[in-house]
Amino acid sequence: MQVRLLGPVELTVGGVCRPVPGLRRKAVLAVLGLHPGHIVSSDRLIDLVWGGNGPSTAQNTLQRHMSYLRNVLGAKDAIVARPPGYVLNIGAEATDVETAERLIRLARQSSDPALKVRHLRGALALWRGRPLLDVVGLGWLDEQAERLVQIGHEAASALIEARLMLGEHADLVPELERLASARPFDEDVHRQLMVALYRSGRQVDALATYQRLRRSLGEELGIDPGQPLRELESAILRQDASLAPPAPAITVLPAPDVRVVPAQLPLAVPAFTARTREIARLDTLLARSGSTSAVVIAAVSGTAGVGKTALAVHWAHRVRDQFPDGQLYVNLRGFDPGGLVVDPAVALRGFLSAFGIEMDRIPAGVDAQAALYRSVLAGKRVLVVLDNARDAEQVRPLLPGSPGCVVVVTSRNQLTALVTAECAYPVMLDLLTGDESRDLLAHRLGTDRVAADPAATREVIERCARLPLALAIAAANCFTHPELPVASIAAQLRDSTSTLDALNDADVGTDIAAVFSWSYQALTPGAARLFRLLGLHPGPEVTAASAASLAGLAAAATRPLLAELVRAHLLMQPARDRHTLHDLLWTYAASLARGEESEPRRATAARRLLDHHLHTALSAGQLINPKREPIAVSPPAPGAVLGQPAGRDEAVAWFTAERAVLLAVIRQAPASGFDSHIWQLAWAAQDFLTRWGHREDHVASQRAAIDAAQRQGDLVAQARSHCGYSTACAKLHRYDEAHSHLRHALDLYEALGNHAGQAFAYYQMGWVSNLQGRHDRALGHARRALRLYRLAGHPVGVARTLNSLGWDHALCGDYERARPRCEQALAALRLLGDRHFEAGASDSLGYIYHHLGNYGRAVEHYRHAVELFRDVGDRYYEADALNHLGDSHRAAGDVDAARAAWRHALAIFDELGHQDAATIRGKLGTRPPVTLVVPSRSSTAAWSSPALPVSTRP
């Protein structure tokens, strides 16, 4: 069931529309629908539904409306009475508004234009006309309708932008011409129309569009077009190459089903056989999940290579339709040969992100994350597969808290503690029986081939120890050599003399290295070399580019070798361009590398792999933070394949996919003696890690960077890493620790005589002090930073710190001293072309003038800040400045302008999924007396990512 608000107010139950008669009844439903899952007090309901003029009988009438709505919904608990009011309780995405906002959020998060189009079309398809069409005239609901209209406009604009990225410019021209006619002052629509016309070969028409808009704005409003449009006109006049159309349009998929759920299960194993008893056991547990008040947990245990993952994934695919709210999967890597055991906090962030929770809304600390995870899954029916767990402690934070969910855990350990404390049901997985082993070979090789030589088949089974992994590899090689009879395969296994001590610990009663050895010997020389070099990769996943770097080959030459390894079952491919090794095979490959590759060749291959990750990370980091000056690094080793992300979204996507690999590389590099790569990789990744909320990873990488720099004796790298570590600590509210590391950095910079570095350390101390609310201390730190930046001859640092100094004076209540410093900073930053910090200085001045009572000047500066933040693409601070712009409008008595600014801010905060949206809703809903609250961030940090190094962020 769902409440539909994006048009007339109505209900759908079982896919059938059920109209709701009566203005007040519809208004009650709309108010509850705009607060799904939250209690709305009876007093507030009466106030909003009757517009502040509720009759004396309103309370009784409200109760009757609730009873009627429950009957229409067909469930008494669909609307629950909870003091002091009522709550709409019909599950996830109770309204079409929630569904639309989720799809818009998914579109914003995606770097794929086709996927953006798909999500945005799905969202816009939910609009059935003007939102809340039949409850007009009720003040608060009218405001909500305007907000929803604005969200629709912005989604439509984003859809056009995505279609332009797909090369659909010619198809868009008629639509954009209609929009431009309907919105004669909308600069964004005219910009899109100019681009579409130019890319369609209509340069003259594109320029004429600009001139018409310029005349309209001048004659009607007395203003000129904004800078982006002026720059676009200049680019069209000089036929700038950046305006060229993209590649030919890609066929866009139809709009998706509006209900999207996580579907994280990896590919099922083809031709899965046997395990009948274990599957029946899991089916029985699934049946119990519908009649128990607890989460059902199955603990699947068995030796390495026995097929635990294959069973869990096969069964999960078999029953996934019974879990309509999603399927979650994570490989916890509990027995990873490289020691890359997944922290439960990392797994929790992945699960929460799969349900659309923004990274900056995920709390720090595994306990808080686990609590949020349980809240998200409450009332849902979700299947959770926790693969390759080390112990119960790694699993417990990942367990849902409410019935309806089923968890399957696989582990080499029996997880007795989980069985005892959490009442998990043990499912022991033993070696295959002889019949099951024969069935497996028959499925893969054909019944006739296996039946032709029963004795040879028995020998293959015995030499593979009835271990599914060994049997699969033997069968794969047999399958790729159809001319070989099974007897020939048995003979080759019999004659293999390879041994591998590390595999003897698998407790399977035999040495399965012979199976691996025979498969390895059947490879072409190039694939065999790549396989053993993969033993040097720390995991968890290998891309074609990283494999090519290990081998010193071009990526195009490496892909056929990877495909050969996949066909031989020596490598798995869970996704496009993502490959993994079973940990037994990883151990085998590593032993081959040690035995067949000399130490110099292994070191050279490791250097190429590190250079691939380092130089790609540096390129991606520069796209995320273009103002950051690069650090000096050694040129890449010959043969290293370097990635070059095409834009910011692609850079973020690369970091997201490779984050675990980068951390594994940083962890493994000390053993190879590559300390420079460690701190440089940590430096390159820190903007991504801090901005996308990977706080624990940021701490771990900077800790490794400090250790590496100390081993090298590199004082500059140590100081930089201490500063980076301080940022990570501050993000986790570990302020004393942050100050301690900044003092270390300060001591190092003083020993080096590096004035700019000392200035940065003081600047950072000011940022941390403001986070603690110690504004007087921040003021002292800013003064020291300013003096040192002037001594260092660092104009950018001077300008930025002047703004910080002014902001600190403002936070201390001394607005007269704050104003001239921020005005000096604004002028200097404008001359330096530092647009992000110019926006920050203008925002600071808006705050200062507001408190000086000069609301007109405050509005001017806030408007300028909004424009600049929009130009540089900083959506959060654009919304933050809009919020304060609304405060200044309200203080000046212009309520309509205030509400317009707040609505715009709310739309952005909702798009970002940010908690500040609640504050804006409060201002729009209750119109409280406005007092401009000191923002939670300080100007010192607001426009300077604390992760930036001294050379770029003073």
Automatic annotation (TrEMBL):
Start and end residues of each OmpR/PhoB-type domain: 1-90
Keywords (alphabetical) are:
DNA-binding, TPR repeat, Transcription, Transcription regulation
Kindly give the Gene3D superfamilies that the UniProt entry links to this protein: P-loop containing nucleotide triphosphate hydrolases, Tetratricopeptide repeat domain, Winged helix-like DNA-binding domain superfamily/Winged helix DNA-binding domain
Database matches in SUPFAM superfamilies: C-terminal effector domain of the bipartite response regulators, P-loop containing nucleoside triphosphate hydrolases, TPR-like
Q: Which CDD domains match?
A: BTAD (cd15831)
Where do the TPR repeat units fall? 839-872
**Record feature DNA-binding region, as residue ranges:** 1-90
Q: What family does the database annotate?
A: Belongs to the AfsR/DnrI/RedD regulatory family.
What is the protein name for this chain? SARP family transcriptional regulator
> What organism is listed for this UniProt entry?
Phytohabitans aurantiacus
